[in-house]
Amino acid sequence: MNIAEIANLAGVSRAAVSRYFNNGYLSEEKRLAIRKAVEETGYRPSAQARTLRTKRTGMVGVILPKMVSPSVGRMVEGMLSVLDARGYQMLLAVTRNDPKKELEYLNAFQDKLVDSVILVATVFTPEHRRILKKLSVPVVIAGQQLTGYCCVYHDDYHATYDLTKLLLEKGRRRLGYIGAMLQDKAAGEERYRGFRDAVRDAGYEELAGNSAVAAFTSAAGYEKAGELLEKCGLLDGLVCATDTMAMGAVECLRERGIAVPEQVLVAGQGDSEMGRVMVPSLITVHYAYEKCGEIAAGMVMEALEQGESASREVKLGYYIHDKQI
Predict the structure, then answer these.
(1) Predicted confidence band at 279 (pLDDT cuts at 50, 70, 90)?
(2) Number of helices (H) and strands (E), helices first, in the chain?
């Protein structure tokens, strides 16, 4: 079967069939007629032929740090809601938090395997900037701010500042912090800066040194909580860069016979489902991860469909989820 035969069966023009497969405008009557012909014949257009004709693959490359992260999963759901509606498919590349893998995938996508790229980045090295600059397809950064590029990111600094301030307002004066590597501007640098400034502004500047850097796992949260207890003595509050780290910290505290939250109040970030079902549930920051994915995919569609090339930055808000009030 070919387009001409489908058009003949449906009683429409070849142009109408082409618009149908490219999500163009059609009257509902013609759309239903073409759909019926397609379903009866099992016809599928040739992807290779469409790529040669339109210079488009219909694919958006998405580079992720990992798959098991609840926040990343919600961002992907947001992206899919937009891409599916526009008839695009997603080609996932998972780096396992390895910046070198990000570079490899950026180079691979440069070879026109995809029409555009959404990068959920961890760090930006000079090599990242060099490759991003030479990409021939539109690129959108999700979860991080990078000047000169379309990006959607969160207010990590103020979220952690307010979270730390909340624990201080609850009477906790011996706070510790478990964060991510500072090379990660959002989850690492900005969240630690929020903690540091909050304790300083409250008159407890010495608490800024009660900190440890962990990987994005519960095992790392467990390990670093133990290190902080050895280093700082018994804390009465612990602010973590992610819910996953916080859950590991809670496990460490309970194994040592330290009551949570009575003796140590633990807070995370990400508003994960696991954090909500813990007893007691974590104090946590809710970030609009799904909306971040939606906006990032929307920026990609604007670039592809409207030729929009100007860089645009969108910073999303947050709120603190606290069931321990």
Answers:
(1) confident
(2) 13, 12
